[in-house]
Amino acid sequence: MSAAPPPKKRTWSLNSRATRGLIFQAIALLLIAAGVWFLAHNTQENMRVRGIQSGFDFLGAAAGFDIGETLIPYSPSESYGKAIWVGVLNTLKVAVIGIVLTTLLGVLLGVGRFSRNALVRGLCYGYVEVFRNVPILLQLLMWYLVFIELLPPSNEAWNLGHLFYLSKGGFSFPFPSAGVGQVLAGVGLGLVAAWAWRQGVQKRFERTGQNADRVWAPIALIAVFALVGWLVAGMPREWNIPEQLAFMVDGGVSATPEFMAILIGLVIYTSAFVAEVVRGGIQSVSRGQDEAAAALGLNPKQKMNLVILPQAMRVIIPPLTNQYLNLTKNSSLAVAVGYPDVVSIANTTINQSGRAVECIAIIMLVYLTTSLSTSAFMNWYNQRVAIQER
């Protein structure tokens, strides 16, 4: 048996295409760095000549303004940096919840376009054509007006079982008083276990053709891990339940009209595009795959879950990533309905501190970071899908 040939040594020669490629990349990076330095230096020098303060030292100064909706404790006496961080968390809250809900609704609408029921197909088609052709800003304003004009006042809130209240003051619902962190940690571990279960089922199906439950078993795993988290927290049973008072609804957890408007508007608008992405991905699978699955005796649900959707994912994921990025960036329109996201808080900071360049740079950095993180995760998932298809 002949020995493997020794690896080729890299030869650094201008006649080598790889060497020339590295040199051109290094030159391009140097030119970009020089351009960025020139712009930054020129901007700073012009601001100095005109007596405009610059720098990020203002982030440690007291903000002096209140924020109507926060995920972490905040008071006006705290710093601008803390206020901007509150805005970043509010932006992430809209983006993460919106991506999850958009995915669920968009997939249902996309699959519904292939339903054998003409009414379902028509409703899905009408939904897509209506909501994707109305500008997102108009939809946000429409939903905001629904909450502040059409809903009853807080002292006459609609309620369901005296547990859920909906009014101009927002949507209030019960929430556990303790143990939330442990339960959420359990849910996170349950999601990992559910993902591992589905991966194992898929590999077994590809190897032996034997299938197993992919829905109820993962849900059971999530429930079991959440139960474990509740037990670790000491089995708390106290709930913070909202209560109708004379002038308002007090207690529980409340989603403000501004948050509901931006969330519903983004989900409804983006899910229409996601539905078209899913429809295009399904249509990219050849009809022979559907016929082969039917010849094996698979019912329509099994054909969609086991044969068509797995093959359509390679077409769906890249444009789906674009829609996730669009949803995250469109959340900057929250300023139109008064939701305190990072753009809104940064605008207030600019008006008070005068540090426009720094605040705009922070906004750009926030959206650049979230977009690149989303792209990195989706690219990783896309590679996993491609490997599984091989």
What is the chain-wise order of helices and strands?
HHHHEEEEHHEEEEHHHHH
* Largest sheet report: 4 strands, antiparallel
Overall geometry comes to globular
Task: Report the span from N to C terminus.
Answer: 30 Å
Mean pLDDT: 86
Order of strands in the sheet with most strands: 1-2-3-8
Gyration radius over CA: 26 Å
Question: Can you lay out the helices and strands and say which pair or pack?
Answer:
Blueprint: H1 17-49, H2 80-112, H3 118-131, H4 136-150, E1 158-160, E2 164-167, E3 170-173, E4 175-176, H5 180-208, H6 216-232, E5 239-240, E6 243-244, E7 249-250, E8 253-255, H7 257-283, H8 287-295, H9 300-330, H10 342-353, H11 356-389
Antiparallel strand pairs: 1-2, 2-3, 3-8, 4-5, 6-7
Helix pairs in contact: 2-7, 2-10, 3-7, 4-7, 5-6, 7-9, 8-9, 9-11, 10-11
Summarize the structure in short:
Helices cover 65% and strands 6% of the residues. The protein has 390 residues and is mostly helical. A hairpin with a 4-residue loop joins strand 6 and strand 7.
